[in-house]
Amino acid sequence: MAASHSSGRKSNAEEAMARGQQKIQSQQKNAKKAAEKKKQQGADQKTAAKAALVFTCPVCRTQMPDPKTFKQHFESKHPKSPMPPELADVQA
């Protein structure tokens, strides 16, 4: 007669399934954390980019990061408009 091995332990297949499930849950949790971190980082970059746009064209309200770009924009897009005084001494 064969002795039964039911001593309350899980079989290898049941144990592997439990670890597999834990692995899947851990991967999902880590993916969620990474997505949240990436989303927050994107917001920080947008804020920094917006803060870098310090010059605003008085004609079309386009924002530019530096006076050289601003002058180039103004000369190419608004050639008939008078040059703003803050661009008079800027070298384009």
TrEMBL record:
<protein>
    <recommendedName>
        <fullName>Zinc finger protein 706</fullName>
    </recommendedName>
</protein>
<feature type="compositionally biased region" description="Polar residues">
    <location>
        <begin position="1"/>
        <end position="10"/>
    </location>
</feature>
<dbReference type="GO" id="GO:0005737">
    <property type="term" value="C:cytoplasm"/>
</dbReference>
<dbReference type="InterPro" id="IPR013087">
    <property type="entry name" value="Znf_C2H2_type"/>
</dbReference>
<dbReference type="InterPro" id="IPR026939">
    <property type="entry name" value="ZNF706/At2g23090_sf"/>
</dbReference>
<dbReference type="InterPro" id="IPR007513">
    <property type="entry name" value="SERF-like_N"/>
</dbReference>
<feature type="compositionally biased region" description="Basic and acidic residues">
    <location>
        <begin position="68"/>
        <end position="78"/>
    </location>
</feature>
<feature type="region of interest" description="Disordered">
    <location>
        <begin position="1"/>
        <end position="48"/>
    </location>
</feature>
<keyword id="KW-0863">Zinc-finger</keyword>
<keyword id="KW-0810">Translation regulation</keyword>
<feature type="domain" description="Small EDRK-rich factor-like N-terminal">
    <location>
        <begin position="17"/>
        <end position="53"/>
    </location>
</feature>
<dbReference type="Pfam" id="PF04419">
    <property type="entry name" value="SERF-like_N"/>
</dbReference>
<feature type="domain" description="C2H2-type">
    <location>
        <begin position="55"/>
        <end position="77"/>
    </location>
</feature>
<keyword id="KW-0862">Zinc</keyword>
<dbReference type="Pfam" id="PF12874">
    <property type="entry name" value="zf-met"/>
</dbReference>
<keyword id="KW-0479">Metal-binding</keyword>
<dbReference type="GO" id="GO:0005634">
    <property type="term" value="C:nucleus"/>
</dbReference>
<dbReference type="GO" id="GO:0008270">
    <property type="term" value="F:zinc ion binding"/>
</dbReference>
<dbReference type="InterPro" id="IPR045230">
    <property type="entry name" value="MBS1/2-like"/>
</dbReference>
<keyword id="KW-0539">Nucleus</keyword>
<keyword id="KW-0678">Repressor</keyword>
<feature type="region of interest" description="Disordered">
    <location>
        <begin position="62"/>
        <end position="92"/>
    </location>
</feature>
<keyword id="KW-0963">Cytoplasm</keyword>
<dbReference type="GO" id="GO:0006417">
    <property type="term" value="P:regulation of translation"/>
</dbReference>
